[in-house]
Amino acid sequence: MREVVILGAGMHPWGKWGRPFTEYGVAAIRAALRDADLSWTDVQFVVGADTIRNGYPGFVAGATFAQAMGWNGARIASCYAACASGAQALDIARTRILAGLCDVALIAGADSAPKGFFTPVGGERPDDPDWLRFRLLGATNPAYFALYARRRMALYGDTAGDFAAVKVKNALAGSLNENARYRATVTAEQVLASPMVADPLRLMDICATSDGGAALVLASEDFARRHGGSRRPVRLAAVSTVTPVFPNTVLDLPDFATDSTAAVPPPKRSFRASIAHAAYEEAGLGPEDLSLAEVYDLSTALELDWMEDIGLCPPGEAVKLLRAGDTALGGRVPVNPSGGLASFGEAVPAQAIAQVCELTRQLRGSAGARQITGARVGLAANQGLFGHGSAIIATT
Amino acid sequence: MTTPVIDGWFTVDDGTAHLLGTRCADCRTVHFPPRTGPCRNPHCDGETLVQVRLPRRGTVWSYTNACYPPPAPFVAADPYEPVTLAAVELAGEGIVVLGQVKGLTVDDLHVGMELELIASPLADGPLVWMWSAPGTGDTNGADHTAKAGTGATRAPGTSAAPERRGEGVA
């Protein structure tokens, strides 16, 4: 099979400024092109990961970015898959390169996030479960994260102190990342003293909503070879965009209920576990091959869930690895060496792309103070609302 | 106000609340919220989904609360008391259903404990299903005539929930 390589990665720092999302996207695109040593006019295909909170330009993000960069005649796509939007964009661009329809593709996502809880899109829409869960139950996103966290405590004996230790670890990594929004280190005491939001999760257990932008330049292996350059190539070994398998027995956002197991027994793997599994199968690799993982720590406790779901340890044993320092920088397999969502907050359509930016830097050996020695294989995993899986494996 | 907040998802008869699901006539898969159209079991070609009353009791899969008033379209009580939520696995149906909890806080709950369904009003009046301690089902204050499908009105949240501290969470 032809291979797709990552030629360039670029980001606009994460923060909360309320400026137009296009500004962040264009800055990230320009950074990615500089990184790839290519011009905007070299790009043959553009995919924008959409934002639903910034009006019409956000729904057609590909064209919005292309117009802002100056029309270059490239073919284009725009896509939305909630938190997995970036992975969808990556998959679309990769597929087009693999099909031989283009040699150079660029993907970008950016968001300008409102303050406060994410709320449903405006208007009264009683047919939309995302609107109904707020109207009927007041069930915010952190409520769902908290359900998962409480269940870990009940099943595995995890403690609030364990959750706080995840934040301490990720804040330390984030303090070394110039693109992170939160650069201060924190103590477990600070986490445990922060206000309770959704019991057992406190404010510092839960990721913020952020502004930010990220972009990647992808190319066919042949083009990359011709293009040359001194950098170590980073290969895209797998993109998993799987959906759940019926019956999905974990209560997912924004649902009111799980599927029923009355007629069909639960599948072998939970949805989250199946996301990573499909990526491993495609790459011909396994969790034992990972040098690092970027996982979607919407809450501190959710990072522990993901560690088990991507196969770093059996269910219930994530805290053991955490306490041993295995997942910290310098540990056996660092998790969220970028600082994760704990340090970035979430800029929805940019976040999955930002995860791959971190993989790229680590695999190139250019992650500076966060560099993982000898990094060879990285996995990025996340899950988009309404059943969008997202896992990416990159290798040297 | 005694109208349900949504049509057809639950019913209250003589003070006893039931969630309304639909069961596939072919494979017996249960759906909640109630569905029409084809069965959601991808291995089943069934197209006949029959309305059923779901078991009123189940065990807590997990639980939490909302320490800050949830944003619109939720209408928060004023003064605000944290809303408790529980995801409850219904006895014998292999389905977990989320709901508010009436009369219990997170300190009263634990994973695996039994809860029972009632109907109780939201802050702005309409009835919604809620989980409660077993045995409170007949004294929940719900109007006995309230029935799903009697013309629910859905008042949109008019008072925006106060911005919570900090910069916001996902």
Automatic annotation (TrEMBL), chain A:
InterPro entries reported in the protein's UniProt record: Ketoacyl_synth_N, Thiolase, Thiolase-like, Thiolase_C_2
Domain Thiolase C-terminal: 276-391
Occurrences of domain Beta-ketoacyl synthase-like N-terminal (ranges): 61-112
Gene3D superfamilies named in the record: 3.40.47.10
Domain of life of the organism encoding this protein: Bacteria
Annotated coiled-coil segments of the chain: none
Transmembrane intervals: none
Name the UniProt record assigns to this protein: Lipid-transfer protein
From TrEMBL, chain B:
Domain annotation ChsH2 rubredoxin-like zinc ribbon: ranges: 18-49
SUPFAM superfamilies linked: Nucleic acid-binding proteins
Protein's name in the database: Benzoylsuccinyl-CoA thiolase
Record region (Disordered): 138-170
InterPro entries associated with the record: ChsH2_C, ChsH2_Znr, NA-bd_OB-fold, Thioester_dehydratase-like
Residue span(s) of domain ChsH2 C-terminal OB-fold: 52-117
